[in-house]
Design a protein that fits this description.
- By secondary structure, this protein is mainly alpha-helical.
- It has 2 domains: 1-25 and 42-93, no CATH class; 100-229, Methane Monooxygenase Hydroxylase, Chain G, domain 1.
- The protein is 80% helix and 0% strand.
- The chain is elongated and about 65 Å long.
- Residues 1-27, 51-57 and 73-99 have low confidence and may be disordered.
């Protein structure tokens, strides 16, 4: 199979552009707890990372479908767009039976990884909320008793606000993944077994989302409950 230069250049430019957008930022990680690091990693540049993976996967599927570099470029563009919100397979309008099964297998793997990451994020969120609750209550008591400076409590509240912001981003990421999974269930090309499997995984994503949302609300309530006067 021959690759046409235009298709190769188009795909290469797309990947390079997305990669460049996703490589910025990222300092101030030294003082994070392991749980905080899990959530920072979970939410860090997730839209661009998904776009890059989606573009690469879309390229592969497009090439398998057409045998041409133009198929790679077209698939990469569609995959990059879909990848930003959870997956690329279901955005491809697949019609060739020869690569449909491999596409479903790829999507299953992506969903499996998404569920595993979401469950790890939910566990980290619970630990962060538990720790915030214990430390903020203790600090507030100690400040009121005059044994701890108010500035210490203020610093802990600042950290709690950062944690809440990360939890909000984690919920948003799961909203995107759940939306994509719902769309996947409507794809007529999925067989019954694949739909049942995806539905089960979707339920697991929704459980993880509910847990993280609950902990985000718990941290928010803690912040409001600690007076700074």
């Amino acid at each position: 199979m021959r690759f046409h230069r235009a298709g190769i250049l188009a795909m290469g430019f797309s990947i390079a552009f997305l990669s460049g957008c996703a490589t910025g930022g990222g300092g101030g990680q030294a003082n994070l707890t392991p749980e905080q690091q899990v959530l920072r990693d979970y939410t860090k540049d997730y839209t661009m990372q998904g776009a890059i993976v989606g573009a690469l996967g879309g390229c592969a599927i497009g090439w398998l479908a057409s045998g041409k570099a133009e198929g790679c470029a077209a698939g990469g563009v569609a995959g990059g767009i879909a990848g930003g919100t959870a997956g690329y397979f279901l955005a491809q309008n697949q019609t060739a039976a020869g690569y449909q099964a491999s596409g479903i297998a790829l999507e299953r793997e992506r969903v499996d990884n998404s569920v595993a990451d979401a469950q790890a994020a939910a566990a980290a969120a619970a630990s962060i909320a538990d720790r915030a609750e214990a430390e903020l209550q203790e600090l507030h008591t100690n400040v009121a008793a005059g044994v701890t400076e108010k500035a210490v409590l203020e610093r802990r509240l600042t950290q709690a606000r950062k944690d809440q912001d990360t939890l909000v981003k984690a919920v948003k990421k799961l909203d995107d993944h759940i939306k994509s999974a719902h769309a996947a269930l409507e794809n007529p090309q999925l067989d019954g077994s694949s739909k049942a499997y995806l539905f089960t995984r979707l339920q697991e994503l929704e459980v993880a989302r509910a847990k993280i949302k609950q902990d985000e609300e718990r941290v928010a309530a803690l912040i409001l409950s600690v007076p700074m006067t």
